[in-house]
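Quiz preparation item.
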């Protein structure tokens, strides 16, 4: 596979308040400025790290101020750059406990092979998260909610962001892809089909979470690019939609059901 990271470049922007997008088209990366350091939500591919760092600098976000790197799940497109960031910044790393061996290399389930890549920048996470755990830094408290299915340790995150006068609730989904729940993938790695029921149960459990700003770990999940264009045109509230989270949960559940019925 020929890797051409510059083709996935996206100009960075402030989503709302102290929340920023600094990622790329193939994999989203978000930054929260907590006032006491920066939190990164997913690091992206290792070959795209230079684009993420460039974007941070464009927004006046110094990578040296990075304190926490929090991962939605243990696939290479969401944690491939983490080892380099650890070496650069010393940031503390978080991931769902069931995905620990995905990132430390003990299980060959990073999805690198399926993408025609190699994953050798492994790391040992500092904090293994379980359902309901809270992460605090500065003015930000993040609640982790287990969202198993796409991977066993997929985590969704919920947190308040502020523009100094108003507060909005943001939600980042842990992973809605059915590619790792299809028969071919599960049989290839001798994985349990229970992941499907776990995923459906998680969608039912999380759909009623109050979310003003829905974030995707891929741009297409929440129409990141389209909304960024609206922001550039002067719509400061382009990402605010209190119905979008529930709609995504319902869609993701039905998408999996449709896949199962087609097999």
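Solution:
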């Amino acid at each position: 596979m020929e890797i051409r990271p510059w083709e996935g470049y996206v100009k960075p922007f402030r989503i709302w308040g102290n929340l920023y997008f600094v990622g790329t088209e193939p994999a989203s990366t978000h930054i929260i400025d907590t006032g006491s350091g920066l939190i990164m939500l997913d690091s992206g591919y290792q070959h795209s790290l230079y684009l993420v760092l460039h974007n941070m600098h464009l927004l006046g976000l110094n990578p040296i101020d990075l304190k926490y790197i929090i991962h939605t799940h243990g696939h290479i497109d969401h944690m491939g750059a983490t080892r380099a960031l650890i070496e650069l910044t010393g940031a503390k790393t978080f991931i769902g406990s069931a995905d620990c061996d995905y990132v430390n290399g003990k299980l060959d389930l990073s999805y690198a092979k399926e993408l025609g890549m190699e994953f050798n920048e492994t790391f040992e996470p500092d904090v293994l998260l379980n359902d309901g755990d809270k992460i605090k830094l500065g003015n930000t408290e993040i609640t982790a909610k287990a969202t198993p299915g796409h991977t066993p340790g997929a985590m969704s995150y919920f947190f308040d962001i502020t523009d100094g006068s108003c507060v909005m609730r943001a939600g980042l989904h842990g992973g809605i892809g059915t590619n790792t729940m299809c028969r071919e993938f599960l049989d290839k790695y001798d994985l349990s089909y229970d992941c499907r029921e776990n995923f459906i149960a998680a969608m039912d459990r999380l759909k009623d979470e109050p979310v003003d700003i829905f974030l995707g770990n891929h741009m297409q999940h929440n129409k990141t690019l389209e909304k960024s264009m609206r922001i550039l045109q002067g719509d400061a509230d382009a990402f605010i939609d209190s119905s979008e989270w529930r709609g995504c949960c319902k869609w993701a559940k039905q998408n999996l059901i449709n896949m199962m019925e087609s097999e």
